[in-house]
Write a structure and sequence with these properties.
It contains 39 helices and 16 strands. It is of the alpha+beta class and 1047 residues long. Strands 11, 12, 13, 14, 15 and 16 form a six-stranded antiparallel β-sheet that branches. Helix 2 packs parallel to helix 4, helix 18 packs across helix 31 and helix 23 packs across helix 25. The longest helix is centred in the N-terminal third of the chain and has 17 residues.
Amino acid sequence: MTDSKYFTTTKKGEIFELKAELNSDKKEKKKEAVKKVIASMTVGKDVSALFPDVVNCMQTDNLELKKLVYLYLMNYAKSQPDMAIMAVNTFVKDCEDPNPLIRALAVRTMGCIRVDKITEYLCEPLRKCLKDEDPYVRKTAAVCVAKLHDINAQLVEDQGFLDTLKDLISDSNPMVVANAVAALSEIAESHPSSNLLDLNPQSINKLLTALNECTEWGQIFILDCLANYMPKDDREAQSICERVTPRLSHANSAVVLSAVKVLMKFMEMLSKDLDYYGTLLKKLAPPLVTLLSAEPELQYVALRNINLIVQKRPEILKHEMKVFFVKYNDPIYVKLEKLDIMIRLASQANIAQVLAELKEYATEVDVDFVRKAVRAIGRCAIKVEQSAERCVSTLLDLIQTKVNYVVQEAIVVIKDIFRKYPNKYESVIATLCENLDSLDEPEARAAMIWIVGEYAERIDNADELLESFLEGFHDESTQVQLQLLTAIVKLFLKKPTETQELVQQVLSLATQDSDNPDLRDRGYIYWRLLSTDPVAAKEVVLAEKPLISEETDLIEPTLLDELICYIGTLASVYHKPPSAFVEGSRGVVHKSLPPRTGSSESAESPDAAPSGGQAAEQPAVIPTQGDLLGDLLNLDLGPPVGGPPIATSSVQMGAVDLLGGGLDSLMGSGSGFAPAPSTAMPANLGAPLSSGLGDLFDLTSGVGTLSGSYVAPKTVWLPAMKAKGLEISGTFSRQVGSISMDLVLTNKALQVMSDFAIQFNRNSFGLAPAAPLQVHAPLAPNQSVEISLPLNTVGSVMKMDPLNNLQVAVKNNIDVFYFSTLYPLHILFVEDGKMERQMFLATWKDIPNENEAQFQIKDCSLNADAVSSKLQGSNIFTIAKRNVEGQDMLYQSLKLTNGIWVLAELRIQPSNPSFTPVPVPFPTFLAASFLWVGMSCVALTHLSVYLRTCCLPALAGLPAVAGFGVVPEMPSTGGVPVHLPSLRNHPEELRCCCSPSSSSSPFPPKEAGAGPVCMSPFLPAKEPAPGNVPPAPGPWKPVLPSLVGLG
């Protein structure tokens, strides 16, 4: 008899019976009782009252009974933590059992019992099991480390289990290696900052060796780990690919997709000229095709992944079109996905085959599928220009079928074909108008109205056709109403004498009788345009429209690169990054493909991963001030460094919509965005790239003066060889509150350039052109023109990496070109950045101590007054100044355009000729230490972020401003340069400057008779006891704290 009998009992009072049976002396009876308990627990009955009786059954040699008891323990230990301690001794004993199965079972169960009291007893048994002689025990213990880390991460680190886990990667047993990799990967995902999987060629070689021998799940873990590795060169990438390729023939589809992920990633590093590159492309196709012979659910997952692969590398499957032809018994979700891939693979070589197949689909009985098939015919026409005429002919044949939904979809599609190929296929309009009465779907009606309005001069009775739509204006959908309004205005501008009454009627309906704000606003705009300037109205409404792009549904290139790194996961099925659907995804790391090397396509993205597969985070979200905080701290504000040429790479924008409105208005052609070439900076551009503090002191060859903001010298942003003869150089400046981009456009081509336009991608501070790019005359060959483009900060905001990165698109009559540059941060310093003194002190005192950033500027020959004056020219305002032992201290504030405040202390060490026997002035050292924090301001609803130094003795003694919270005094770490007197570590200097006799303090002294006092949060309020004097500071190192959330 089977175990199902245990689930059929309905007796009452069985708890007492089970209790008696559990305490029976007969082993078989005890085993039966435990099975009954597990059955009751499985169906949801509460059998926790039997906990002590079940635990007593642990002392047995019967493996089956022991497994059942352990299962019970895992379920009820959390609700009975005190009782669970009773089982600890048995666990410890079982971990030393001669039977490896029992040892592994014990350590696995202890890892699954999420009770803090038990975890501390788990450490010793786990340590022994990690070094057990039996590989089965070791592999179980490896997974247990990951479970224990999830319960108590600090305990795992303190006990050294992570190091032991790393050692297991070198284990002789492949399954132990696989489980160690799986455990480390799990831990690394929850702690992205910890570099646990520190992969190198030696460890990669061990993983590849284990790959051939472990189970399918072990292979998946190892392949996923390999995908996070960054080979040092193309030779290593090819070697890894060669050893991973055999996994493509594995029977498990998950192993195949994981292998495809590794190969797709490392192919980026292989030159297309290599013979091996072509061989790899051929090897990738068969396993992907084989996946389509599985059951429908697996087919769908495979198709979603193939969709990504085809967008990235269509050449892999360009000869496999037939496998994507739809079968009669395919589910609808498989059919639609196959249809999408067919369009992506369509080319001039196979378009006839594709069109014949699509025409067949359009006669199916499934309405949704037929609609998609008709749309697909239109997409083929737009994608393959040579097939457009054949596609239009096919659509006309479908219209002749008079099937209502087919006709309506065909009209929508033909409208798009008209947009792509104007003045080419208008002969079909008569056929479309014949089917006007059968249109009942809003999208089809709107498309037909657009066609009538756009080609009104070719349709004799256009006014009658539009008037027929106008009769039921208020019953139409908003989409149709808006299209009808625009179409009638177009008709009026083309035939003003015949349609004046019609346009007045539609404007009245739209503005007076409608409650839709969009319709009403558009009506008023047209009304005012027509009443004030009909010529301008004609230029606006009848302007030449940009051609629609070939592929409107392609995934944005940066996102596509990230999704390729997630092939075989849910992200590849949803076509969304994990951060979009994983709640609380602190462990989700943004990934990207490695930069392509060894070929002419070496346009590297500026946010490509530097090493180890840990890609830099892609700019994906609008940053809060808290998000910007860490990036502001990590900006390179050090002095400019000369050296070899610094290459900055253009951003490969693909079909990305830069400002939410598309670049179609700039392009004037139907082509999509092309990959932008990389832009190399000359060697003398090192200084402007740093955007550092040194720039503000004119330590480079800038053109700043004492009375104005610093302006960096112009540098080449886009060389002529990368932009078909157009060279763009420039710089940024801020004058009288206005930011400008000063450009020099040089035509080094042999043809005239005209029709210039410019657009910025979303960026961290919302920089955007405040006016169009005005080039008043065509730019002749070998001619240059200087332009000052005004900028504002009201554009779309998106966090960039680095923070001051700006991506630019420039269009002319030849093409659209892209480049990226770094703008200096000081152009964002606003003129009202001077903080009132008492507010400065109160703010300073309330700032926490842990967020400190320090920078040092050498070879600055300016004195304190000159420094203060020069910085004020860049809107960095001095609040107070004092002198301590010959060094000048400046306390300053500034404010960024987005409302972020910065507080700073600047120390200036004057020349000291005694350091050298030769009468040459010793280089002046200038150090600034910064601290960024966030705090809520009184009577404000937003957060302001402040920056301050680690030490401010001169501000002590001032009363705190009411409203800001009191921060408890706390000690601070070192961080002041060693060659400067450390006020933090020498309280006597503080007492001196705070006493009533200290005349150097810029702030009001204490009341007469009061002793010295210290209100600095960095220094003790009383004199330290003898023997507790802080030691002298050690060597100075800049402190760059991590991001601080402004919760």
